[in-house]
Write a sequence for this structure.
């Protein structure tokens, strides 16, 4: 199998605080992990591509200082939303691609962030 | 750059009827094509994929999709749907050196009793 987990599944925080979301590949090693954002009833928008041991590559329009990504190991990537504001409320989904694997991305269950 | 168009945002269909969810893509390079399914408040699950070889690919739960290069399409079909097939379906294309995925806007399939 290829299982990806995310923690937490749901988080509510006050405006101005920082929130860390973890993405783990449970039964495989992932050279590359991706972070997406999904607004209600909309498609997934790629935020950044994260490779183990190197800096993440951010998509145009995504603030790298606001959405900090760390990919410290082949099984863990973290997304930290710094100084969160209500407009950051969204569904954040990560995916992972296997080491030496082909093109398939395996997705986590998502994290629902609500900033009050 | 590549793009994906899912022509139907909502598809209601009665149980046991056939269904087709349309997907068209554009890309200047060779592509890989995927269909993912998303149930409410959950992440995406891979339904099927085309990487190379046979242009007709099938999933374990009765869905199939055919890669048509001349029409740049990858439509998803099922001959007889179940209530449990109700979900959002996303078509995605992967291309380029980073193999990033570009998603379509999604199609909500609602199976009616």
């Amino acid at each position: 199998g290829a299982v990806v987990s995310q923690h937490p599944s749901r988080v509510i925080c006050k405006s101005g605080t920082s929130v860390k979301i973890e993405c783990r590949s449970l039964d495989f090693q992932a050279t590359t992990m991706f972070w997406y954002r999904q607004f209600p009833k909309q498609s997934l928008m790629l935020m950044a591509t994260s490779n183990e041991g190197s800096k993440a590559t951010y998509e145009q329009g995504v603030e790298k200082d606001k959405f900090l990504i760390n990919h410290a190991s082949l099984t863990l990537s973290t997304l930290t939303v710094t100084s969160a504001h209500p407009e950051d409320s969204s569904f954040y989904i990560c995916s992972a691609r296997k080491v030496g694997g082909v093109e398939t991305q395996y997705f986590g269950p998502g994290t629902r962030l609500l900033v009050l | 750059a590549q793009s994906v168009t899912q022509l139907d945002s909502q598809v209601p269909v009665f149980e046991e009827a056939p269904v087709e969810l349309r997907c068209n893509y554009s890309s200047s390079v060779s592509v890989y094509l995927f269909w993912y399914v998303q149930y409410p408040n959950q992440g995406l699950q891979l339904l099927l994929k085309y990487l190379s070889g046979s242009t007709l690919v099938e999933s374990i739960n009765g869905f199939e999709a055919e890669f048509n290069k001349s029409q740049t399409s990858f439509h998803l079909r099922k001959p007889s749907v179940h209530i449990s097939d109700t979900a959002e379906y996303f078509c995605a294309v992967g291309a380029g050196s980073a193999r990033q995925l570009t998603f379509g806007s999604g199609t909500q399939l609602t199976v009616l009793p």
